[in-house]
Every structure is written in C-alpha cells, then in structure tokens.
Design goal:
Layout (H helix, E strand, L loop, with lengths): L43 E2 L1 E3 L2 E3 L6 E6 L4 E7 L3 H17 L6 H17 L1 H12 L3 H22 L12 E3 L2 E5 L5 H14 L3 E5 L6 H12 L7 E3 L4 H9 L3 E7 L2 H11 L5 E5 L5 E4 L5 H13 L11 E5 L3 H12 L20 H16 L3 E3 L15 E4 L6 H4 L6 E7 L2 H9 L6 E5 L3 H10 L4 E4 L18 E2 L4 H6 L2 E3 L1
Helix pairs in contact: 2-4, 3-4, 4-5, 9-10
The protein binds nicotinamide-adenine-dinucleotide.
The site of nicotinamide-adenine-dinucleotide has 30 residues, from helix 7 and helix 8.
Length: 502
C-alpha cells in the first residue's frame, strides 16, 4: 500500500501571485458580518405589574429609538404615580402572601430557571440589547447577557445559604425594594439589582432608563415563563418623574439607585429623614496607572479596553490615563496607532469595536466636553475614520498634555474620550489618582507585586484592577468611595445591602 510519502506526486504548478489588488489601508477592512438573530421585538411594550403586562394609567407611550440608525424600535408605556403605586401594591401583596414565606431553596429554583431561560434566549437578548442601546454586538453577546445570567446563577446559589452571609447573625428580608437603573448596561444592571433582592426574599419595583427599556420587558417574559409568582418583580417604564415616584414611595423599605452622581444627590436629598435603607452606585473618573516596568503592549490593550469598551459608557471607565513620564511618548504613540484601527460603526456588525452613542443628548454632552478640552489647551487626537451618515457616533479620542485642573480630567464624559496625564513618582501617581470627587475604580500596570499592593491599599477606589481592566465576576463586590456612592453589588457584601441583621 503506497504511503503518502512514496506516492508519486505531480510537480505543483508554479504560478506567480496576481498583483495585489489591495492597498495597505484595505487590509484593515473586513466585509460586514451583521448579526442576524431575530430580537423578537414587539411594536408596543406595556408595564409589567402583578405578573401581567398592563396598559399605563397615564395612557401615554414614548418611543424607543435605535441609536445606530435613528429608527423607532417600539413604543414604551409611560408610568405615572398611579402606575407606580399599583406596582408597589402588587409587590407588597406578593411579599406578604408568597415570596417571604417561601424557603430559600424554593426561591433558588426560580432564580436558576430565570438564568437558564436567559441562556436559552441569549442571542435574541444580545441583539435586542445592541439595537436598543447602541453597544457592539460582540459586547452584548460576550459580556452583558452571559454576565446577567451569571448573576442569576450566583444568587440562586446563595438563596438557601443565607445564614453564611453574616455568620453568627440572623438575616431577614426587608420587604419591597425600589430600584432605578441607567442605560449603559440595561440587562446587566437589572440582574445586579433583581437577583440579590430576590435571593434575600425581597420583592421589587424597578424602573429601567428611558432609552433602554426593551430588554427589561423581555426579561419580564422570562419571569412569566419561569412561573415567578405574580408581583415578585414589577417593571415600570418612564422618565425622571417615574424614577422619583419609585424612589419616594412609602412602601419602599429600601431604594437602590444606579446612575449619575447629580441624580443620586437629588434622590438622597428627597429621602433625607425617611428610614429607607439606601444604596447609591454613581459616577466615576477612574485612573488607569501605567508604570515604566509594565508590559507595554498588554497595558495598551488594557487602556483601550478600559475606555473604548462600550463607547466609554462605563461608570468605571479608565478615562484618565496616568502614565510614567519615561514611557509617556512611547505609550501615546502606541495608543494613537491602536485607535486608528478601531472599527466604529454598525453595532450589529460582529467586527465593530465602537458602536453608537446611546442618545443625541449623550452625544451632545460628549461633544461639549471635548470642545472644552480643546479650549483649555489639551492636544486632541482623533483617527480619520468615516462615521455612518445616520445615527449617533463619536470617534475615539485621545487628549494629551492634560493637567489636573482641566475639566476633561475632572468631569465624567461618559464617552470614548481618554485624557492622558503623566507622573514621575509612585506618590505623585497616588496623589493624582485620588485627586477627584469620585472613587469607583482604578487600574495599575506594573511588574512589581509590592507596588500593586501599595497602590491597592492607598487608592481610594472601590475596585483596583492589577495588570488588567474591566473584569467582572458576580462573586466580586462592586461599588464606590466618595461621590461614586455607597453600598456594594455582587458577592456576599452585596447581599448584606438587601437584608436586616438581628
Ligand atoms: P441618570 O442619573 O441620568 O439616570 C439614571 C436613572 O435615573 C434613569 O433611569 C433615569 O430615568 C432616572 N432618573 C433621572 N432623574 C431622576 C430623579 N430625579 N429621581 C429618580 N430617578 C431619576 O444616569 P444615566 O445618564 O442614565 O447613566 C449614566 C450614569 O450612571 C453615569 O454617571 C454612570 O457613571 C452611572 N453608573 C454608575 C454605575 C455604578 O455601578 N456605580 C453603573 C452604571 C452607571
């Protein structure tokens, strides 16, 4: 039997390769690869109260717009104070009659079921999330939806082990919890809020952000399919007035808010003097600190991920780069080269790195603050990439020559804009990183373990990532210092914010 080796082979035809048809720039272009899964959207979404979809008492609806192309996706019910009151009545009834009486192992079964049903419909949810919010499909597919399911799984695991949340103490649920969330991680923020509340035995009234309500109402379909008892979770959609009604309702034993520091302060002022428990997850202006002994290419990827991930719509975005002076020029050159090949465009395209800005209002805020940066004398760099004609887009932007007094170094821009500052010593890096009203997160890039431990202890930030950035796990608590808020989400620390201890 002849083997391949002794088989006689005809000589290969030597053909000269055709003259390259591509010019260099084209090498970076991929053919479009749009995600085609059906997001199964309805043309109209009602409120979810008492386990049913109900029309709003207000009779009013508003449009949810796809920021990638400015097309209307669906009509969303606008809840008024009467709708919010109905949601609280449904939640209180469910709490008194059903949920608080169920043993933890029974509550766990519902949470496991919700997690599995979300996994089953993962692609559909990812597409809906991308169309409603503008984030690239690779993020909603690989991060938002799996991480949301992971939070339900994780908290399902806790529901029958609550005696270990605070060993030696007896934990008890609070009752009905009011929650309001922002638009940057619509489904994930729902999971962060709903899963620990339910695991602990509470019932929920929650309001998603006005520009991103769709995946919340799709999750309500999953609650129905999972057989979650009516009223355990109620979803009311609307604007600031709806949010204020949710936060201020007398039946709310606790309120949990994620959003801007400005709105967080308004809520805190309005609730001062009440006995409501409160947690606030607010804004940030994180420092990503790069020392001269860091692995530079890895650090550059970390910086890119830290600020351009999700168009910079991330509370913990590494929006201030603090770079060690000896390597500042080299890092800046690498960053400029790297952002020049980021693909900005259709969020449904699997090749897209930077999708659409969530709303015209957010785009206007980014443009305003970038103009301030230029006026204050920082040096702007933007790649010359083409942006789609329709939709809300912004080029990735790097400001160098930034000083601590510049507004772009102090204010949350919440867009794909990086401000680069330099430092000479470890103490100067810590001083600059902490010189902010916020304290949500920070990153440290260095070869030295001792330096990482020193910075982790001295940085006033709820999370410090070392030689990585933007990594999340349901077991790891997340939350802020100073004007970034108080309370934690995730881990057993997060559960402590949803119970009372005897
Ligand atoms: P936002 O504060 O404008 O709105 C957040 C939510 O609050 C929305 O649902 C909105 O309708 C509602 N709201 C507005 N006014 C209200 C009022 N007076 N009373 C009650 N509710 C009201 O924030 P945003 O623009 O949607 O989100 C971006 C902000 O969220 C950024 O500052 C970001 O840093 C922050 N954020 C923080 C975290 C965290 O974990 N710390 C996570 C995500 C986002």
């Amino acid at each position: 039997m002849p083997t391949l080796l002794n088989k006689k082979r005809s000589a290969p035809t030597l053909r000269r390769p055709a003259a390259p048809a591509l010019i260099f720039g084209d090498l970076w272009n991929y053919d479009p690869a749009p995600e085609t899964a059906d997001p199964k959207l309805k043309s109209r979404y009602e409120l979810f109260i008492g386990g049913k979809f109900v029309a709003p008492a207000s009779g009013k609806y508003f449009d949810s717009i796809n920021p990638a192309n400015e097309q209307k996706l669906a009509e969303i019910a606008r809840a008024n104070a009467a709708d919010v009151a109905a949601a609280y009545r449904a939640a209180k009834k469910a709490y008194d009659q059903t949920w608080s009486r169920l043993p933890g192992r029974e509550r766990a079964k519902y949470l496991f079921r919700i997690a599995r049903l979300l996994q089953d419909r993962a692609r559909e949810f990812a597409v809906a999330e991308t169309m409603d919010g503008g984030k690239p499909i690779k993020e909603s597919r690989d991060f938002d939806v799996p991480m949301a399911a992971a939070h339900f799984f994780y908290h399902a695991g806790w529901a029958d082990k609550l005696e270990y949340v605070a060993p030696g103490r007896r934990v008890a649920s609070l009752g009905v919890v009011g929650q309001v969330i922002p638009w940057n991680f619509p489904l994930l923020m729902l999971a962060w809020k709903i899963a620990p509340a339910l695991a602990m035995g509470n019932c929920v009234v929650i309001k998603p952000a006005e520009t991103t309500s769709i995946t919340a109402l799709k999750l309500a379909e999953i609650f129905q399919d999972a057989g979650l008892p009516a009223g355990v979770v109620n979803i009311v959609t609307g604007f600031a007035d709806t949010g204020a009604a949710v936060m201020g309702h007398p039946l709310a034993a606790k309120v949990a808010f994620t959003g801007s520091t400005e709105v967080g302060k308004i809520i805190m002022r309005s609730l001062a003097g009440t006995d409501k428990k409160m947690t606030m997850e607010l804004g940030g202006k994180a420092a990503n600190i790069i020392f001269d002994d860091a692995p530079l290419d890895q650090a550059v990827e970390g910086i890119i991920n830290g600020i351009f991930f999700n168009q910079g719509h991330v509370c913990c975005a590494g929006s201030r780069l603090l770079v060690h002076e000896p390597i500042a020029a080299a890092v800046l050159a690498k960053l400029k080269q790297r952002i020049s090949v980021l693909r900005v465009g259709d969020p449904l395209d699997k090749n897209t790195d930077i999708g659409a800005i969530n709303s015209p209002a957010q785009l206007a805020t980014i443009k305003r603050l970038v103009a301030v940066g230029v006026k204050e004398g920082a040096t702007l760099y933007q790649p010359d990439c083409a942006l789609p004609a329709k939709g809300y887009y912004f080029r990735p932007t790097i400001f160098s020559g930034v000083s601590m007094s510049h507004r772009i170094a102090r204010e949350e821009i919440f867009g794909p804009v990086l401000s680069v500052l330099t430092f000479r010593t470890v103490d100067e890096a810590i001083e600059k990183a902490n010189n902010t009203a916020y304290g949500l997160s920070a990153g440290v890039w260095t070869d030295k373990g001792a330096r990482i431990l020193k910075l982790a202890a001295e940085l006033k930030a709820g999370v410090v990532w070392a030689n990585t950035y933007n990594k999340f796990d349901p077991a790891s608590p997340f939350g802020g210092y100073k004007e970034s808020g108080f309370g934690r989400e995730g881990g057993c620390q997060g559960l402590l914010d949803y119970c009372k201890l005897d």
